[in-house]
Amino acid sequence: MFKNRTLSVLLLFVTINLFGFLVQKGFIPTRFKINFLLVVNAMLLLMYFVNAIRIRQLDKTNPNALIRSVMVGTLLKMVVFVTAAMVYTTQVKAPVGMPTLMASMGLYLFYTWLEIKGELYNK
After folding, report:
1. According to DSSP H, which parts of 2-122 are helical?
2. How far from each other are the two terminal CA atoms of the chain, in whole angstroms?
3. Which among 95, 89, 83, 4 has a CA at the least distance from the CA of 44?
4. Residue 74 CA to chain centroid, in angstroms?
5. In 32, 66, 118, 120, which residue has its Cα 20 to 30 A from 112's Cα atom?
6. What is the CA radius of gyration of the chain?
């Protein structure tokens, strides 16, 4: 399961966590709620591995199954992202903020792009 595409996803995960560490230590000023971004980053990594295992078990000769699986994975990640935002706002009793939501959405899109790119070119 640890192929080239997994290495790029792990590199993205480590880069985002390094950025979060630097923000928390005060080296980089930002308007993001960095704890929220780090939790979303961890959830997206977990969802990537769940989707990779699910897609790995597919019949590769059926292109419809691959498309359906990628669509279900994308929808599942979106539901997890929205749920995280809802839980955060109810637990912290503070709004997440538009910059943080946009950064989280960017992470979501980047993880999805890496997943789809990896599945389409590594059959």
Report:
1. 4-24, 34-56, 63-92, 98-121
2. 13
3. 83
4. 10
5. 32
6. 16
